[in-house]
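User: Can you help me understand a structure? I only have the sequence.
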Amino acid sequence: MSDSVDERAALLAERLNFLFAHIYPRGGAPQSNEAVGLATGVSTADIADLRAGVPLDRPPGTCPFVSRLEHLLRTRVTESGSPYLLGDVAKSCGKSRVWLYNLLAGKSKPTLESTMAICRMFQVDASFFTDDPLQALARHFGVAAGAPYFSLPPDDVRVRDTKASVELLVELREAGVPAVIGRYLGSLPQPTQ
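Assistant: Let's start by predicting it. Here is the structure, written out as tokens:
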């Protein structure tokens, strides 16, 4: 592995660990890899690797749809607390179980209509299925600069602004300012063109 790959992985780990250390869910404490994985669909193994400075071994353009759907089926439960059955998911999408089996096996592709039906059923945004791991993590932590935040040079305005915003949120939390103030502060800095 080249030094530049190692340096990028170390930078990514540093920034991701900064977010983990400082951005908490409402009324909570630092988030675990498992909690973030549950929310984003990024595997806890991938999160652990990224936080340790290990680059993901995945070809560019890999579609996370099937793994994210499997994640939802494995981790979400119905209102009654039971796991979702494949037949119920397929029926909710207006499709057959065979369609869902083929989708999970990679033998068929989801349509926009069926993807949106799955999103409604599991109450997730369509980005849950399309974001690459870094974009999903940036979205989860509210980093408006998105995935580029993890690789931008330290002097980039988006990196400096994001860091300053997170540090302000930490100061407000430590001062006991109610969480509702965050609504008035807005999200983390917007990307600049």
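Now, to help you interpret it: DSSP finds eleven helices and no strands in the chain. Residues 187-193 have pLDDT under 50 and may be disordered. Let me know which part you'd like to focus on.
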